[in-house]
Amino acid sequence: MILHVKEAKYLHDYVIWLRFNDGAEGEVNLKDELYGEVFEPLKDLEMFKSFRVDPVLETIVWENGADFAPEFLYDKMKVLA
C-alpha cells in the first residue's frame, strides 16, 4: 500500500499528530530531523507550525519547499493506544 497523509494537526513543540490513508494515526516528533538547508528554517517554531497537508504530494509541506516522505513519517510515528 502506498502511504498518504490524510490529516495533520500541530500539537506542541515539534510534535505533529498524523492520520494516514490506512487508518493509522499517531504523533511524530520532528525536533531531531530539522537539519540541512531546507529544514533548518523550521527550527523557528512559528515557521514549523505553518505546515499543511499538500493534496498532490499527500504529505506535510512548508512554504519554503520542505516536506517529509509519508513513509518516513509513518516509521517515526508513535502510535497512540
Describe the structure.
The strands form 2 sheets. This protein has a 4-stranded antiparallel beta sheet with strand order 1-2-3-6, with helices on one face. It is globular. The longest helix is centred in the last third of the chain and has 7 residues, at 70-76. With 81 residues, the protein is of the alpha+beta class. 14% of the residues lie in helices and 31% in strands.
Give a short summary of the structure:
This protein has 2 helices and 6 strands. The protein is of the alpha+beta class.
Break the fold down into its secondary structure elements and pairings.
Elements: E1 5-12, E2 15-20, E3 25-29, H1 45-48, E4 52-53, E5 60-61, H2 70-76, E6 78-79
Antiparallel strand pairs: 1-2, 2-3, 3-6, 4-5
